[in-house]
Amino acid sequence: MTEKVTIPALHQMKHDGTKIVGMVAWDVQMAQIVDRAGVDIVSVGDTVGVNLWGHASPHEVTLDEMILVGKAVRPGVKRALMSIDFPSGILEQGIEASVTAAKRFVAETGANIVKLDGVAEFPEIVTAVDKAGVPVFAQFGITPQTAKKYGFEYAAISKVGAQIPPEMKDQFVAEAISLEEAGASLLDITNSGPVIGAAVTKAARLPVIGGFGGGPWLDGRMRMSYAAIGYHAKTIDSTGKNYANVAKTTLSALEEYVADVRASRQIKGQAPIKA
User: Fold this and answer.
1) Are 212 and 193 in contact (CB under 8 A)?
2) 272 pLDDT exceeds 80?
3) Beta strand segments in the chain, E
4) Contact, 154 vs 142, CB < 8 A?
5) What is the domain count for the chain?
6) Which of 148, 147, 169 is nearest to 158 (CA)?
7) Residue 246 and residue 155 share a domain
8) Across-strand partners of 84?
9) CA-to-CA distance for 105 and 129, rounded, in angstroms?
10) Whole-number Å distance between alpha carbons of 226 and 235
11) What pLDDT digit, counting tens, does each position of 72-130 carry?
12) Which pTM value belongs to this model?
């Protein structure tokens, strides 16, 4: 796909059975790379707080911080749809605060759609934001915002392989339909597992996309770019499989750079300076 991605185009992909590809990015360089790779959605995720800035929790990210990251990503996204996450706490402030935040995101970052995390309890906010002219990417399932509500510790259920218990299928199908009827444009289910994920995907008219706990039973997948390419520092010593181990490659390259400087050699990538 070379033309710009639109929400109707994503809806058509679900109808045609074509999987939707999403990736999380937090800076212009990564945004350019994932856009060129052909992803359909570039998501400016609130995980930036933990993974890029070292916050203790994703709940610490503020609206202004998310706008700053959105501004950094936007110039790199030329073809894909750009989504940006609401920070924790705004939904609880009510309709007016949520609509104001959504409008700020669009005006100040150029986002095409806003992702409202843990929004199943707030269908009225989905409706209000949509009516204000801002498309909604509605996230539900077991998320950092909703884990305690469903009786889970998120630290446990967010581990690879964790999933919503199958006996909760009817509840999450109902939440998907509710969000769809409220005016959402896309759905993002977290920790769905093959039973609930497949049931929600079949029941919903909208594309159903997932990150943690997702799989081929969904209409599409979302993956954090740093995780996909093994960029995290912890990946250096990891035995897990990623699409690359950029952290290890980076460490090796920088050790070579350190050695060159220590040995008074000209560093690579810099034009020699004549004496």
Assistant:
1) no
2) no
3) 20-24, 41-44, 81-85, 113-116, 136-141, 186-190, 208-210, 220-224
4) yes
5) 2
6) 147
7) no
8) 44, 114
9) 12
10) 10
11) 999 999 999 999 999 989 999 999 999 999 999 999 999 999 999 989 999 999 999 99
12) 0.92
